[in-house]
Amino acid sequence: MEFNKVLDNVTIYEAGKPIELVVREYGIDPKDIIKLASNENPYGTSPKVTAKIKEIAQNMFVYPDDSMYELKEALSNKFNVESSNVIIGSGSDQILEFCVHAKCDKDSKILMSKTTFAMYEIYGKQTGSTIIKTVDDEHNLEQFSAEYKKHGADIIFLCLPNNPLGECLDKEDVYEFLKTVDSNTLVVVDGAYQEYASFKDEKKKIDAKDLISTFPNCIYLGTFSKAYALGGMRVGYGIAQEDIIKTLYKLRAPFNITTLTLAAAIEALKDEDFVNTCIAKNFDEMTRYEDYAKSKGFDYIPSYTNFITIKFGNKFSSKEVAQELLQRGIIVRDLTGYGVNAIRITIGSNEQNTKVFKILDEVLEKLK
Ligand SMILES: *Cc1c(COP(=O)(O)O)cnc(C)c1O
User: Fold this and answer.
1) 289-293 average pLDDT score
2) How confident is the model at residue 264 (pLDDT cuts 50, 70, 90)?
3) What is the full DSSP assignment across 334-357?
4) Number of other CB atoms surrounding residue 150 within 10 Å
5) First-to-final CA distance of the chain
6) What is the C-alpha to C-alpha distance for residues 286 and 350, in angstroms, rounded to an integer?
7) What is the CA(222)–ligand 1 centre distance, in A?
8) 179 C-alpha to center of ligand 1: Å?
9) Does residue 161 have a cis peptide bond before it, meaning omega lies within 30 degrees of 0?
10) Domains along the chain?
11) Residue nearest to atom 9 of ligand 1 (CA)
12) Which terminus of the chain has a smaller tally of CB atoms within 10 A, N or C?
């Protein structure tokens, strides 16, 4: 059968491996499996949110509130914007998709960093757009400027901080760059890990309201999947000027967010203490990974997120390391597919990390 030709260029997104797969393929007991491949919050969902979900579960026979009034109110209060500046998606992924489909067709150009969130390219190619990447793996604004001057762009993606590498540009440098961008170029600031970055270093903090008032061609994206520990609920949001939000709404299916999800997200926003405690533990635990990498002579990328990228240089193959870990019940992300000989490990709980170091020692000894 013939399909839309642009899809010939689209590769299928490969998600982090689920626990169920490791149980099936390696016969490991689920309770012995440590999943550190999708940057989920290892401390689980806030008990207050779980209680709310159970309560709401009685009401599944009615459609959700399609206006999403309460969640939009909560988000507009948090970010000090109007409800009309907010759109909710089934994960911030869905907002990314809306942005690309709202702005791009086969004649469009999309500019992004070489090694960044894989979905930018996938959504871009779905529209037949040309993808332009900078040369360095990490975000480099001089290269963004040079490529932008040369080709222009309909959309620019900035992942702040960047997944899968963990680095983060300073807000001031981002603003200097944005000043040079045409008002008809949509700049997507993906803040999936902003809660972590702004906790670690104030200089990295992007304030959504300030961003969209200073640069009306920008949209800020946030998610409940990472720091807010609701990956399984699929909910994220975009914050932008009303004209952008209204256009994105044209692409939205009705009831794109479930009743359970809406209630969970509203409840999660009320429990910021939980989120802040998780973030503080994340950075305490991250120092153990930094020390581990140093002790083995591996480079790592200083991270502003809830994961760390450890490079093996010419010492080991990241693919082999990841595979050996998997067979022992530890799921990490191999970055070979991104052209980088490194693994990305989500920072787990104290107990999980202790086990990771022990098993990593075994694996490295075997592969040496
Ligand atoms: C996780 C992630 C997202 C979106 O996740 P959703 O679960 O779809 O909200 C977006 N961007 C980056 C960089 C991510 O890592």
Assistant:
1) 98
2) very high
3) E-GGGT-SEEEEE---HHHHHHHH
4) 9
5) 49
6) 10
7) 8
8) 26
9) yes
10) 5-44+273-367 (3.90.1150.10), 47-271 (3.40.640.10)
11) 91
12) N
